[in-house]
């Protein structure tokens, strides 16, 4: 039989059907166990589906236990599932006592919570130690804020649960509400959020630690050079060309002037040779003609750009 993950052939006793009744996709024991272990380690244990691409059939507890064949990971799965179910209750708070982690059910109007396991008193709103004479914001001291920053802890922008980022890319998924967001800007994640041309996201920063200084201006420059580079190069060329023409034109004009003057002094100049005024008039007309070339080309480029924009937006 052929495994649908590693595409290797194995004997039937080394294969497993994750969902025996819903679908007939088959995988080898090694692949399905690694698939489930990865999900459990990442705390993605809600609505585990068949690993076959496009299959949406869900695995129940019996299927997961049968496929895992590992009691340690299965108990971890059960524990994570219970925690997820408790986290779905907005009135549940977890005791912050060292080694306790006992869930505390808050009641309506009850601000001061007491753990029935270790007796620790804590605040219902900020989940810190009980602060009778202080508001929640004042109770969070600077040392606590430093610890939060040091261990890269942020709040989910949707459910406000605390999330710690250990490694990997900046595409985050909240284990409590499954909200997907960017770790850097905390905006909702989209497939184009890290694209180089997306100036409204975090372009090129999928694995960055922080947003670089003036990064948005670099992105705008990249965007302009990528999509309007041809026009910008032509505009720069048109600005430099008249200056070069004036410099070389004046140089040639100056050379001819002294050349003819030298000839006139030595007696070699003929009466039919063009006068200096005629030469100056010729080069003046030539320079004016060259100076008008950029203007004409800019008009043509603007017309072409307008037609291109019109074609794009009026499809």
From TrEMBL:
GO cellular component, one term: cytoplasm
Taxon lineage: Eukaryota, Sar, Alveolata, Ciliophora, Intramacronucleata
Protein name per UniProt: RBR-type E3 ubiquitin transferase
Pathway assigned to this chain's UniProt record: Protein modification; protein ubiquitination
GO biological process entries: protein ubiquitination
First-level EC class: transferase
Membrane topology: Single-pass membrane protein
Organism in which the protein naturally occurs: Ichthyophthirius multifiliis (White spot disease agent)
Catalyzed chemical reaction(s): [E2 ubiquitin-conjugating enzyme]-S-ubiquitinyl-L-cysteine + [acceptor protein]-L-lysine = [E2 ubiquitin-conjugating enzyme]-L-cysteine + [acceptor protein]-N(6)-ubiquitinyl-L-lysine
GO molecular function, one term: oxidoreductase activity
Source species, domain of life: Eukaryota
């Amino acid at each position: 039989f052929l495994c649908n993950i590693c595409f290797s052939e194995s004997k039937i006793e080394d294969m497993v059907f994750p969902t025996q009744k819903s679908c007939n996709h088959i995988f080898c024991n090694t692949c399905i166990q690694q698939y489930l272990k990865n999900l459990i380690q990442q705390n993605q244990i809600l609505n585990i589906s068949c690993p076959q691409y496009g299959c949406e059939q869900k695995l129940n507890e019996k299927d997961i236990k049968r496929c895992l064949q590992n009691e340690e990971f299965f108990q971890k799965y059960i524990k994570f599932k219970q925690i997820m179910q408790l986290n779905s209750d907005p009135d549940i708070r977890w005791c912050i006592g060292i080694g306790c982690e006992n869930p505390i059910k808050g009641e309506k109007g009850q601000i001061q919570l007491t753990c029935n396991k270790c007796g620790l008193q804590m605040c219902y709103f900020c989940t810190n130690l009980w602060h009778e004479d202080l508001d929640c914001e004042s109770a969070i001291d600077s040392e606590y804020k430093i610890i939060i920053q040091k261990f890269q802890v942020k709040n989910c922008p949707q459910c406000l649960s605390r999330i710690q980022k250990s490694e990997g890319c900046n595409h985050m998924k909240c284990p409590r509400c499954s909200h997907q967001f960017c770790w850097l800007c905390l905006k909702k994640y989209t497939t184009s959020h890290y694209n180089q041309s997306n100036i409204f996201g975090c372009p090129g920063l999928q694995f960055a630690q922080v947003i670089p200084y003036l990064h948005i201006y670099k992105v705008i420059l990249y965007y302009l050079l990528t999509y309007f580079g041809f026009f910008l190069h032509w505009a720069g060329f048109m600005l430099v060309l008249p200056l070069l023409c004036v410099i070389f034109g004046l140089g040639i004009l100056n050379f001819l002037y002294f050349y003819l003057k030298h000839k006139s002094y030595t007696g070699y100049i003929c009466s039919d040779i063009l006068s200096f005024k005629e030469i100056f008039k010729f080069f003046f007309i030539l320079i004016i003609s060259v100076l008008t070339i950029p203007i004409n080309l800019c008009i043509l480029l603007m017309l072409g750009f307008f037609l291109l924009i019109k074609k794009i937006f009026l499809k």
